Amino acid sequence: MEQLNICVIGAGDLGTVHTEQWQALPGAEVLAICDIDETRALAAQKKFGIDAVYTDYREAFDHSGIDAVSVAIPSGVHRIVSEAAMRRGYHVLCEKPIAVTRQDGEAMVTAAQECGVKFALGFCKRFLEQVHKLRELVQGGAIGRPVFYRHASGISVRPKLWIMDKEMGGGPIIDMACHYFDQWRLIFDSEPVQVKASGLTLSTDSPLMTEYDPEVDTVTILVEFASGDVGSLSLSWGLPPGVSTETMEDVLGPDGVIAVNGLDELVVQTEGGETELFDGLDANMFEREIAAFAEAICEDKPVAAGGEDGMIALQVSLAALQSIETGQVVTL
Ligand SMILES: NC(=O)c1ccc[n+]([C@@H]2O[C@H](COP(=O)([O-])OP(=O)(O)OC[C@H]3O[C@@H](n4cnc5c(N)ncnc54)[C@H](O)[C@@H]3O)[C@@H](O)[C@H]2O)c1
Q1: Do 115 and 139 reside in the same domain of the chain?
Q2: Given CB 3.0 to 4.6 Å as the disulfide criterion, which of 10, 64, 234, 317 pairs with 174?
Q3: What lines the ligand 1 site, CB under 6 Å?
Q4: Is residue 293 one of the residues assigned to a domain?
């Protein structure tokens, strides 16, 4: 692999993950890191031995020799930074969700096409062995078709408050649900056609949210696919501090059930209660995501998940918000 020089924008949780993986990848080097919070940027520089630190992405993009940019900042500012990077001719790996609005997402897809750069979306779950095993089991008829995929979980208001905000993060319907909308497309090998949702904003009066405008934080979303398969998400990020629910995730089919445990285990149960366990599945998703993006650049291959995939997931999220507002089923 040829040498790849990287600039990472954002030195928070995911910026740190990207930086660590880039620095560990043979043939790649992070030349510059940028965060509006200088303390964070300096801490990442020290931890990962990076040459240059910036607090303004435009100055970071002037750093000589950059090939690609990792964007790991709040979703409401994905567009301004990603588009600027693309217009400078840099390949971009942007964290999911693509954006919080359709206009921002579409502008990013257009910029990547116009600039002829690789544009990958951080749908890291595409790199989980568990998701690929699920696809193999569902496609192979292990529990029959069609299937009904369920996930339910509830946690307290996220300490990272921007993620709850309508303009910066979009709450769980945009920030978290996009992972499921994307992985269901892969597992069902089909596209979403219809969305229904009901939801509430439990955190409206939370003293934590005084500086933010919280998006719906508690929701049940049903997504029907062209294949007849259905995905169901029941999420809350609106519970009081210290309060959470058990997480439940499984796939129901006419011939059995697949329990989805954590990120590395599946248990298939078929007629008569017979079970088959798949454990120790490779959950090292970020290492594989970064390596796949580098390969797409160096060998001029398609990215695993791109802007169009990001837009499909965002459209399902926006349809869920529309369904909550109107009480109607939304056809995609
Ligand atoms: N793939 C995943 O599973 C996953 C998990 C968590 C977060 N994310 C996504 O990653 C992105 C970042 O989330 P995070 O958890 O790292 O957030 P974070 O709050 O931990 O870090 C974000 C950082 O961006 C910086 N920042 C904000 N605006 C900036 C700008 N204009 N220029 C430079 N720096 C700026 C902040 O100062 C902060 O340090 C979000 O889009 C989020 O949805 C993805």
Answers
A1: no
A2: 317
A3: 9-15, 34-37, 40, 57, 72-75, 77, 81, 95-96, 122, 124, 160, 175
A4: yes
Q: Which residue matches tokens 């969305």?
A: 195
Q: State residue 205's pLDDT score.
A: 87
**Residues facing residue 32 across a β-bridge:** 7, 52
- For position 18, what pLDDT does the model report? 98
User: What is the span of the domain harbouring residue 132?
Assistant: 128-282+315-331
Distance CA 332, CA 319 (A): 8
Other Cβ atoms within 10 Å of 190 Cβ, number: 16
Residue 310 within a domain: no
pLDDT at 210: 87
Q: Judge whether 219 lies within some domain.
A: yes
Give tens-digit pLDDT for 32-78. 999 999 999 999 999 999 999 999 999 999 999 999 999 999 999 99
Same domain, 232 and 202: yes
Same domain, residue pair 246 and 117:
no
Please indicate, yes or no, whether residues 262 and 290 belong to a single structural domain of this protein: no
pLDDT of res. 19: 98
Cα distances from 38 to residues 33, 163, 330, in angstroms, run 10, 21, 44
pTM score, whole prediction:
0.97
Q: In whole angstroms, how far apart are CA 30 and each of 97, 136, 288, 301?
A: 23, 36, 17, 22
What are 232-270's pLDDT values in tens digits?
999 999 999 999 999 999 999 999 999 999 999 999 999
Give every residue of the chain whose pLDDT is below 50, as ranges.
Answer: 1
Nearest-atom number in ligand 1 for the CA of 77 is 31
Q: Which of 7, 9, 13, 92 to mutate to test the pocket of ligand 1 (most atoms within 8 A of CB)?
A: 13
Same domain, 266 and 292: no
Does an H or E element contain 317, and which?
A: helix 307-326
CA-CA distances (angstroms) from residue 197 to 166, 215, 235, 331?
Answer: 17, 14, 11, 12
* Domains in the chain, number: 2
Tokens of 98: 């693509």
